[in-house]
Design brief:
heterotrimer, A: mainly alpha, Methane Monooxygenase Hydroxylase, Chain G, domain 1, 2 domains, C: 490 residues, two-stranded antiparallel ribbon, 2 strands
């Protein structure tokens, strides 16, 4: 039962942390409500109107593309640190990795995901690629 | 002649392929080709009758080739007397079934004949296979064409009947497959060899507990096919709704698959279990005999009546078989042939009036002997054959069965005899209602008698009925070694006794005896006077 | 520990590399080619699949672990890779016509098909939980998108969302189980794990891990009670995708299952055998009885595919070398008959008729005899009637069960296959018996004809002369695992 005990402690710790933070903050925190504090998003726009407002899908696209290519750096950095140990073999592997990303980049570019706004160039490309 | 059985086996299938190439609009060409192929199939099988050597090896014309070596399955064909006769019955009835469909089938002619011919190959394969997996393959192959024959060309309730037939048979056969696999692995444990060779299984002598289970599994497969009470309920529906040729094949050949399975597999491979199941088999058979006959007596539908008579007759066949003595088993086999001949003919007869009047209600008919005298005469002969009138085939089978059953247990014989009496009742009652009296229904006044083609379908059956009735010795001679082979396995005491009281059972002497009963009395364990001994238990 | 991956490792993953390159070529070609030339992409995809198949040739008798035990290149993996690639090729051929009717853009579609195939290949080769999981995700994400590929179609969208949500949920469960396995053994390599679990038989934490992994894998193979997503997804997804999903994804999941349980958890085999015994019976029975009431053919095939997962589990329950062989044999023959059946459904798809209702099949025998005959054959094969491949597959499964003394399982299995014929035959009834009043005119195209011809030929040949398949499958099952792990196979 040794192993179970550790799992049990883990569960207790997790649940306890969540519980204690909520309870403690309600005891310790000062309560001086202002209209700003009561707003759902303290730091954002006031939630006026229909919550199901449409947002441009471009925001999501850009966010995702950013994430994908950001990871590239996360992988490249450790490689750069170990460059000498890994040698040419490691270099070849990183080239392969970048080639894969490059293919994705070409795809994203040609699809027009990097174009902002509905300018004529995008419209023209759309009509030739066809989506 | 090493490919002889393959030639018989694949002739119908080759014909089916030829038919595939014919334009479906060209119906007469299709009919001609199908008839020629079916007849050819019969012709190539005829030499089997002459070439089969009753004194020769157990299995003749053996063909063996590797099929799936990794599991030990082979393309292994061979025939003994039992399968020789059933193969000949199959090719003959197949020809007749094809011939009888000439005018009856007017829709989707091409598919119809293709299915009939494929079915033919399936049936022949099942009778020839000595490899259990191969047997099972052919056994299942028969299902689909028969399903279509009933489902597409059948009458009113055809879809229901077809699926009922299909599922009943399928459930039985898949359980049988498990039994086969159990034997397969048990044989491997015994000998270290993976094989589906039936002849090896017959020599193996399996553990009694295993035999018990496997017998049950086989029982389900075969008893549904026979069909034995209480698994018979698909039969009346399937027969009633099948087209004439389908009914003929079903009655004459497909039902024999079940009894053949018992004789070829259950009895010799599982002798201990066969003995242990005798009470159950006998009780079910007796119920089948009496119940089938009583229900037949109450039928208003001509075809359904014949179907129930099948239930009763096949139960008699099973009873004879499970007397487990040489006479009973011989009678059982002979009666299988007889049932094929007479019930096949009875279904043909129903088909002919159905084609003319499109009804099977017995009350719609009456006095047909005046408008269709030839028809009435043939019907009379076949009725008598079915009842078991001496000089016709039915008598020989029933006599041998009764004799075998009597030796086993007199009470069983009493029930069997009552079934025969009831059989006479329902057949004669049917004959009286349809053939005699005045023609009261105006629609029956102008019915045409048989034409030449229709007569041709009956001619061989009439000849056979009389031949077996008067001179059955050639048939019995061919069966002798098969029966001995089974008896040696399942009731060795008879075999020993047989050798004792017939020190030199030369086939010549047996053949010389024109009296089948006398000959088979000799096969019963006997004292010095040749009187049968009561079976020892 | 040598740094990085050596050059020889690249040699052993040549097929995966070829397939990746092919996928990228398709992706780039899609955006570079002008619209009217895009139909050529299907041929590029086929070429990629063909090249991958060809690149498998040097590895027909290889038996190595590459990349420090992340992947195994052995006959077991090879067998599955062949199944996946053949299935992918058939799916591509099926899709040509379907995409044209739906008016969907082919580029990303074929790219995703290739990606899914790549994921499957990694799953089959993976002997490390990480590799297996990456393969699984590659495959699953591709299928989430493919299921919703027909954007204007609501059912397709619904299928994608359902598949995604339930798939993600099941992956969570699977990962939890895997993390327990890792925590208990301190390694993610299945073969190392097997030795360290050797001393832990009967440990209840191991049992918990087994239960969680069984549940996670159960989702992927759509075993009852984890099957709820399957009918909706199968019905809503584009038909060729459904075909690929029900064949490729299922086979890959079984490969993963065998790797995890037979290679990684032989010491807990009592536990997982029992669980799979229950799952197998529940899956066959529920799948078959639910299929009986369906009137939509795609939905019916979905339930039948659930039932087939139950049959295949029989081989896993047996757990013997014979059982694994049976699983391989069955998955191979199942691919052909299932893909063939879906190809006929695709054939019935027209611009204005969906063609997947039972009534769309009525009178098919007179309108297109070859398609009807092919469908008849596939139905009989799925039902296990000889002389079709399906019978040979079932023969192996049931013989494995009998051999391992699972008599009741075998009995329930055969009775189930009898039940299944009831609904398979119903399609046949519609094709052959019903009058031709309602049905849609089947659209024939050369690619579909090729698919049907291949599937029919395979179903018949493997049904009559299965010797080669049996030998190959048996050889593949034997190479499973390192020397130590194979001891689990009796």
């Amino acid at each position: 039962m040794q192993g179970w005990l550790s799992i049990l402690i883990m569960i207790a710790l997790g649940a306890g942390f969540a519980l204690i933070s909520v309870v403690l903050s309600s005891f310790l925190g000062p309560r001086k409500p202002t209209p700003e504090k009561l707003a759902p998003y303290e730091c954002g726009m006031p939630p006026v109107g229909d919550a199901r407002e449409r947002q441009s899908v471009k925001f999501y696209l850009v966010a995702m593309i950013f994430l994908l290519f950001d990871i590239e750096i996360a992988f490249l950095y450790p490689w750069a640190m170990a460059l000498r140990d890994l040698g040419w073999n490691g270099f070849a592997q990183v080239l392969l990795f970048i080639a894969l990303l490059l293919a994705g980049y070409v795809y994203v570019w040609r699809k027009g995901a990097l174009d902002w706004g509905g300018d004529q160039a995008t419209a023209r490309r759309r009509s030739t690629i066809g989506d | 002649m090493s490919y002889y059985l393959s030639i018989i086996l694949f002739t119908p299938l080759a014909g089916a392929f030829v038919l595939l190439l014919v334009n479906k609009e060209n119906e007469n060409a299709i009919r001609w080709i199908a008839n020629v192929v079916a007849f050819l199939g019969f012709v190539v099988s005829v030499p089997l009758w002459f070439w089969f050597d009753p004194r020769g090896a157990d299995f003749q014309f053996v063909e063996r080739a590797a099929w799936i070596p990794s599991v030990g399955a082979e393309y292994f064909l061979g025939v003994d007397g039992l399968s020789t006769l059933l193969i000949l019955l199959t090719t003959l009835m197949g020809t007749i079934a094809v011939l009888s469909s000439w005018t009856a089938i007017t829709e989707r002619v091409k598919e119809y004949y293709i299915f009939l011919l494929v079915l033919q190959t399936g049936m022949l394969g099942a009778f020839m296979s000595l490899d259990f997996l191969l047997f099972f393959l052919f056994w299942e192959v028969m299902l689909v064409p028969m399903y279509f024959l009933i489902g597409i060309w059948g009458s009113a309730n055809r879809l229901y009947s077809a699926i009922k037939f299909f599922l009943y048979t399928l459930v039985g056969s898949v359980v049988m497959l498990l039994g086969i696999l159990a034997l397969y692995f048990a044989y491997h444990v015994q000998t270290g060899v993976y094989t589906f060779d039936v002849t090896q299984y017959q020599k193996a002598g399996f553990d009694a507990g295993l035999q018990w289970w496997v017998f049950l599994a086989f029982f389900l497969g075969f008893a549904i096919k026979v069909p034995m009470f209480p698994f018979h309920t698909w039969l009346p529906d399937a027969h009633t709704d099948a087209p004439t040729a389908g009914s003929v094949i079903l009655a004459a050949v497909l039902l024999k698959m079940g009894t053949y399975g018992f004789l070829r597999f259950s009895l010799p491979i599982l002798p201990d279990a066969s003995h242990r199941f005798v009470p159950m088999m006998v009780v079910l058979s007796i119920i089948g005999i009496v119940y089938g006959a009583l229900v037949a007596l109450a039928q208003k539908d001509w075809k359904r009546l014949v179907a129930y008579s099948s239930v009763s007759h096949m139960a008699l066949v099973m009873l004879g078989m499970f007397a487990l003595n040489p006479v009973g088993i011989t009678g059982s086999i002979v009666q299988q042939l007889n049932h094929g001949i007479s019930t096949g003919a009875l279904f043909l007869l129903v088909g002919i009036v159905y084609e003319r009047r499109h009804t099977r209600e017995i009350s719609e008919y009456g006095g047909l002997s005046k408008v269709m005298p030839v028809y009435a005469a043939i019907f009379l002969i076949m009725t008598m054959s079915s009842i078991g009138l001496p000089t016709l085939n039915g008598f020989i089978g029933e006599f041998l069965i009764l004799q075998g059953v009597f030796v086993a247990d007199k009470r069983w014989a009493a029930f069997a005899a009552s079934g025969i009496v009831l059989g006479a009742a329902y057949m004669l009652y049917l004959y009286q209602r349809t053939m005699f009296g005045k023609v009261e229904n105006p629609k029956n006044e102008r019915l045409l008698d048989l034409d030449n083609r229709e007569f041709a379908t009956f001619a061989p059956l009439l000849v056979l009925a009389v031949w077996i009735g008067i001179y059955p010795a050639p048939f019995l001679r061919r069966l002798e070694s098969s029966v001995q082979h089974i008896v040696v396995r399942v009731s060795p005491q008879y075999a020993a006794k047989y050798a004792e009281c017939n020190p030199t059972p030369t086939p010549d002497r047996v053949a010389a005896s024109s009296n089948p009963a006398a000959k088979f009395l000799a096969a019963i364990p006997c004292d010095a006077n040749g009187n049968p001994l009561p079976e020892k238990r | 520990m040598p740094p990085g991956i050596s050059t020889s490792d690249f040699y052993y993953i040549l097929p995966e590399l070829v397939l990746t390159a092919g996928a990228l070529v398709v992706l780039i070609a899609d955006v570079l080619l002008p619209r009217e030339r895009r139909s050529a992409l299907s041929w590029v995809t086929l070429a990629a699949v063909g090249a991958t198949l060809a690149s498998l040739l040097p590895f027909t008798s290889t038996h190595v672990e590459v990349a420090h035990g992340l992947l195994a290149v052995d006959r077991f993996a090879l067998f599955f890779k062949i199944v996946f690639l053949v299935a992918a090729a058939i799916t591509v051929l099926m899709s040509v016509r379907y995409l044209a009717i739906e008016g969907a853009s082919p580029g990303e579609y074929y790219f995703l098909i290739l990606c899914a195939t790549l994921g499957m290949m990694v799953m089959a080769g993976g002997i490390d939980l990480i590799t297996i999981f990456i393969g699984l995700e590659t495959m699953a994400v591709s299928f989430y998108i493919l299921a919703g590929f027909i954007k204007p179609n609501q059912r397709s969208n619904e299928a994608a969302v359902k598949y995604f949500l339930l798939g993600a949920f099941s992956l969570g469960i699977l990962l939890y189980g895997m993390s327990l396995m890792y925590g208990l053994s301190g390694t993610t390599n299945l073969r190392v794990m097997a030795t360290s679990f050797g001393a832990m038989a009967g440990d209840s934490r191991l049992a918990l891990a087994v239960i969680l992994v069984v549940a996670g894998v159960g989702f992927k193979i759509a075993a009852v009670p984890f099957h709820m997503w399957a009918p909706d997804v199968y019905e809503g997804a584009p038909t060729p995708v459904t075909a690929f999903l029900s064949v490729g994804s299922k086979a890959a999941s079984f490969a993963m299952l065998i790797r995890i349980f037979v290679e990684g958890l032989p010491s807990a085999s009592e536990d997982w055998r029992l669980l799979f015994w229950v799952l197998s019976i529940a899956t066959m029975t529920v799948g078959n009885f639910a299929a009986v009431t369906q009137t939509n053919v795609k939905r019916m095939l979905a339930y039948s595919s659930i039932a087939h997962a139950g049959y295949v589990l029989i081989g896993i329950v047996a757990g013997t070398s014979r059982g694994i062989t049976a699983t391989l044999v069955y998955l191979m023959v199942y691919s052909f008959m299932q893909l063939g059946a879906f190809a006929v459904v695709v054939m019935l798809r027209r611009a204005d008729v969906v063609g997947d209702e039972l009534k769309d099949f009525s009178g098919l025998a007179s309108r297109n005899p070859f398609a009807a005959f092919a469908m008849l054959l596939f139905m009989l094969s799925l039902g296990g009637i000889p002389p079709t491949a399906g019978f040979m597959g079932k023969f192996w499964l049931f013989s494995a069960a009998i051999d391992a003394h699972y008599y009741w399982l075998a009995l329930i299995g055969v009775l189930n296959s009898a039940v299944s014929l009831y609904y398979y035959i119903r399609i046949v009834v519609f094709m052959y018996v019903k009058k031709e009043t309602l049905g849609s005119e089947p659209t024939t195209s050369p690619t579909l004809a090729v698919v049907l011809a291949v599937a029919v030929a395979a179903t018949l040949v493997l049904g009559v002369y299965p010797q080669l398949l049996f030998n190959v499958a048996a050889a593949s099952a034997r190479t499973l695992g390192a020397a130590g792990a194979t001891a689990a196979l009796r």
